[in-house]
Each structure stands twice: as structure tokens, then as C-alpha cells.
Specification:
The chain is built from eight helices and five strands, in the order E-H-E-H-H-E-H-E-H-H-E-H-H. The protein has a single domain, classed as P-loop containing nucleotide triphosphate hydrolases (Rossmann fold). It has a five-stranded parallel sheet, with helices on both faces. It is an alpha/beta fold and about 190 residues long. The chain is about 55% helix and about 15% strand. Bound molecules: shikimate-3-phosphate.
Length: about 190
């Protein structure tokens, strides 16, 4: 199959970008990079600390610099933070030589998957579900606009999502041709 130079995963908190990204990279023989984890390593502190000390704006500056740097890396699957699409200047970094995949997930699943998490500062308040809903309303059109593939992840195991993604990335596979007739090209 002819593979894109890079695969970039976008989508909300709790979409499964890191888990699916790691498995997809293995499947493609690519390196897996997680923008948030690399920011934390470089900074020597976790994301809640960065938000606390530098504010969200400080984190966003680090994120933009990281995305710019990582957009140079070939043969990689890159998992991005849920807010990476909010700065327009990041779009060129995300799109550069890349296939962008939007992992689309219901609010219910996002709530379920982030319920016990203490590492996401935007959700450490009385109404994390309300925050997720507001962020979805703002960000869903942007994720969709940037994406080459929109993949629903609700009620699917990471393994199934990866199998469906590989199938969608390789339009010549017989399995893909059978499915296109049923589902159309843009969504799964
Ligand atoms: C954020 C998502 C987080 C992380 C930060 C801000 C967001 O990443 O970048 O807490 O704005 O949605 P995940 O999407 O990996 O949780």
C-alpha cells in the first residue's frame, strides 16, 4: 500500500488518540509520537503543572512549537492534544505531508473515558460534561474540516478502529472496495 508520510490524529479528550495511535503506528511500521507527552518530557513537568504555572496560553505556545517541530518527522503517527486545532497557525503543521484522521466520539464516551482522569486541567471542575459539550460544539467543525478521514470510535475496540483505519487508508484493498459500496467514502 502507498502510505502517507505522516498520520496525524485529532479529536477530543477521551477519543483514544494515544491508544489507537500507538497501535496504528505498530501496524504501519511507523514511529509513534504523542505531542502532550513530549511537551511534558521537555518541560520536566506534567500538563496540570504547566497550566498552573504558565496558564493555558503558556501551554498553547509550547504546543504550537512542538507541532511545528514534529511536523518535520517522516514515518510517524502523531497523537495531538484535543485543543491543538484551535490555533489557526497550527493547521499548516498538522496538515504538512499528512493524512489527518479525526477520531470522532460521543460526549457520553468522552465523559466515561475521562471520568477518573486528573491529568486534564480543563476537566477539573464541577461540570466536566458541560465543558466537553461546549468544546465539542466549538471544535467538531474544525476537526471535520481538517480531516481526510473521519472515524467513529464509539463502542469499538481500539483493535477494530485500527483495522478499519488501515482499510480506509488503503483504498485498493478488496475489503475496502466491498465496504465502500455500503457505507460511502467519508465516514465509518
Ligand atoms: C486539551 C487536551 C489534552 C491536553 C490538554 C488540553 C484540550 O489532550 O492537550 O489538557 O484542550 O482539549 P488530550 O486530548 O490527549 O486529552
Amino acid at each position: 500500500m502507498s502510505l502517507p508520510k505522516r498520520v496525524v490524529l485529532v479529536g477530543p479528550m477521551g477519543a483514544g488518540k494515544s491508544t489507537i495511535g500507538r497501535m496504528l503506528a505498530k501496524e504501519l511500521g511507523y514511529r509513534f509520537l504523542d505531542s502532550d507527552r513530549i511537551i511534558e518530557e521537555r518541560c520536566g513537568a506534567n500538563i496540570p503543572w504547566i497550566f498552573d504555572v504558565e496558564g493555558e496560553d503558556g501551554f498553547r505556545q509550547r504546543e504550537t512549537a512542538m507541532l511545528s517541530e514534529l511536523s518535520e518527522q517522516p514515518q510517524t503517527v502523531l497523537a495531538t492534544g484535543g485543543g491543538a486545532v484551535m490555533r489557526e497557525e497550527n493547521h499548516a503543521h498538522l496538515k504538512r505531508d499528512s493524512m489527518v484522521i479525526y477520531l470522532k466520539t460521543s460526549i457520553e464516551q468522552q465523559v466515561e473515558r475521562t471520568r477518573k482522569d486528573k491529568n486534564r486541567p480543563l476537566l477539573q471542575n464541577d461540570d466536566p460534561e458541560g465543558v466537553l459539550r461546549r468544546l465539542f460544539a466549538l471544535r467538531d467543525p474544525i476537526y471535520t474540516g481538517l480531516a481526510d478521514i473521519v472515524m467513529y470510535t464509539d463502542r469499538k475496540s481500539p483493535r477494530l478502529v485500527v483495522r478499519q483505519l488501515v482499510n480506509r487508508m488503503n483504498p485498493k484493498s478488496p475489503r475496502h472496495r466491498r465496504k465502500v459500496g455500503k457505507e460511502g467514502r467519508n465516514h465509518a
